[in-house]
Amino acid sequence: MSKLYVFDHPLIQHKLTYIRDKNTGTKEFRELVDEVATLMAYEITRNLPLEEVTIETPVSLAKTKVVSGKKIGLVPILRAGLGMVDGILKIIPAAKVGHVGLYRDPETLKPVEYYLKLPSDIAERDLIVIDPMLATGGSASAAIQLLKEKGAQNIKLMCLIAAPEGINQVQQDHDDVDIYVAAVDEKLNDHGYIVPGLGDAGDRLFGTK
Length: 209
Ligand SMILES: O=P(O)(O)OC[C@H]1O[C@H](OP(=O)(O)OP(=O)(O)O)[C@H](O)[C@@H]1O
Ligand SMILES: O=c1cc[nH]c(=O)[nH]1
Ligand SMILES: [Mg+2]
Hints:
Rossmann fold; globular; 32% strand; two-stranded antiparallel ribbon
């Protein structure tokens, strides 16, 4: 059964407020998305398994812990997902990164695939699909489907803002995928934009509007 986790850490909520604000310009928007991605990565890795190792401090031997060999893969959905990659790599620097290129057709709101490049060992990795926006859920669901067709077994979805419609869609299509978000908003408008949302994440990140 797919679970939904909402990261309500005060720093995440604070930064998300300024990400949403239409008066926040490209530079600051990019920086804030990067920072929130780092904080969300910290939360999403909370239950990583640890193993005990022995090391030598300048004073004595110490039995201490390291993350036990988990292989992680990040899969941003282009373009907007790219805005979260560096923030996550800051604290999971050994993660490999695959890319799924999808854009949402503005008329049909259906995802159109245009690029796919994945690490060869995705079947052995814990994958985190990344996209700031989960609107109708079409893009995330299609990305997850593509990964499964390439052998992925263990997938999480991480988004900044989700609409209830998108959460329902992904949970219906992919019962095995847990969803991690910073906020669940009210609804979609007639153009499939999240309300209140933050506007077009790709355009705001890359200054293309
Ligand atoms: O849940 P959905 O209804 O599929 O909508 C969400 C998708 O729309 C946006 O991408 P967009 O198509 O604008 O592409 P971009 O990242 O290149 O701007 C967003 O980053 C998601 O990928
Ligand atoms: O609100 C939305 C919906 C889809 N894509 C976006 O970038 N924003
Ligand atoms: Mg866009």
